[in-house]
Write a structure and sequence with these properties.
Helix content: 40-55%
Distance between the termini: 34 Å
Shape: globular
Number of helices: 15
Strand content: 15-25%
Oligomer: single chain
Number of strands: 16
Length: 380
């Protein structure tokens, strides 16, 4: 029996809309999780994030275990209380950041030993320790197994080795997690771009049994087209009755294509990272507010998105803030971008419910600027 009931309301082709019910609130799917790497969605208050319509946030094990430390977060009442977010939180396992940010000294069957990117201190992360940090110290609602990620392209041998180790670590994660009513554990499918390896990974994960299943190891350099080709088969290998989460993705066009192929959950740093660099996401693609053509543009970013950043400030004012290096520009653009991503999910949920996902996908792609690669994952 899975910890959280997952009800699929409507399907349209492979796309589906539903609700993942948690003790801290319902998560409407398809869902986008803003990334709160170090206990904050960068530049935004939790009230601003909630106003965008986000049902769930993502927190980061690697960053929080190093600073302020998971033990300190626990002492201060857990991550929800610490950051004043009462809705659900999913935490990643820390594995991606260990591989990409730290000076790794050793990956063995037992653990990953690494040096902190902050001060060079030495740490050991095992599947069991990752579960302890996420479930017991941070108190997250959805916990991810520790996995081994490889950058693409990778040799079949390397992809197979990492996939099988990830499966073994999945079993260890499940053993450490045990049975819980108020928290869920997700397993992670690996296997690079190889269909047979993805199939083997999914079979191993199903045998272990998880509350949800993630598609890992994408948006790590393979490009948009290769990612879509993997998503043509990878989601269908995972249990239909449980949520499917595509980790670290991505650009709006990536998300639309993934929903079309049966994915339910997403996260990415892109909305806030773009906002901090003067970029606003819109239905017609990204806008660079540094561009002189906005200097006297009195129109707002999107009057139909119900947050102040999207509706109440002119592009001319935002252009001025960005050019002047004012912090408010970063705040408003980050706020708008998170709200746009939530609006995108809402429009897709409506399209699926009304049986017009194919038309939505086609129209959205036509309005977007040509995709240049996928929404790459970030270490933070």
């Amino acid at each position: 029996m899975a910890a959280f009931p997952f009800t699929i309301s409507t399907t349209d082709g492979k796309a589906r809309t539903g609700v993942l019910a948690t003790p801290r609130g319902d998560i409407r799917t398809p869902a986008f999780m803003p990334v709160g790497t170090a206990g904050t969605v960068k530049a935004l208050t939790v009230e601003q994030v909630a106003e965008t319509g986000a049902d769930i946030l993502l927190g980061n094990t690697y960053h929080l275990m190093l600073r302020p430390t998971a033990e300190r977060v626990r002492k201060l009442g857990g991550l929800h209380r610490f950051m004043r977010w009462e809705k659900p939180i999913l935490t990643d396992s820390g594995g991606f950041q260990v591989m990409s940010l730290s000076q790794i000294s050793k990956v063995t069957e037992d653990s990953v030993t690494f040096q902190s990117h902050l001060d060079g201190s030495r740490h050991v992360l095992t599947p069991e320790r990752s579960i302890e940090i996420q479930a017991d110290l941070l108190g997250s609602d959805i916990v991810m197994q520790l996995d081994e990620l490889v950058a693409l392209p990778a040799t079949p041998e390397r992809a197979a080795e990492a996939m099988r180790r990830s499966a073994r670590w999945g079993q260890r994660s499940k053993n450490a997690f045990g049975e819980r009513d108020a928290q869920a554990l997700f397993g992670i499918q690996q296997g690079g771009t190889d269909e047979a390896l993805r199939g083997e990974s999914a079979e191993r994960l199903r045998e272990i049994g998880f509350d949800g299943y993630a598609i890992g190891g994408l948006a790590v350099g393979e490009g948009h087209q290769a990612m879509c080709e993997v998503l043509d088969f990878a989601p269908g290998m995972l249990p239909t009755e449980r949520p499917r989460y595509l980790m670290g993705v991505g650009k709006p066009i990536d998300i639309v294509e993934a929903v079309y192929r049966g994915v339910d959950m997403f996260d990415c740093v892109l909305p806030t990272r773009s906002g901090r660099h003067g970029q606003a996401w819109t239905w017609d693609g990204p806008l660079n507010l540094k561009n002189a053509r906005f200097a006297e543009d009195e129109s707002p970013l999107d009057p139909m998105i119900p947050v102040s950043a999207s509706r109440d400030y002119s592009k001319a004012y935002l252009h001025h803030l960005v050019k002047a290096g004012e912090i408010l520009g970063q705040v408003l653009l980050s706020w708008h971008n998170v709200a746009f991503f939530q609006a995108l999910m809402g429009e897709m949920r409506a399209a699926i419910a009304e049986g017009r996902m194919e038309a939505f996908r086609r129209d959205f792609a036509a309005r977007q600027a040509p995709a240049s690669g996928s929404g790459e994952r970030s270490a933070g």
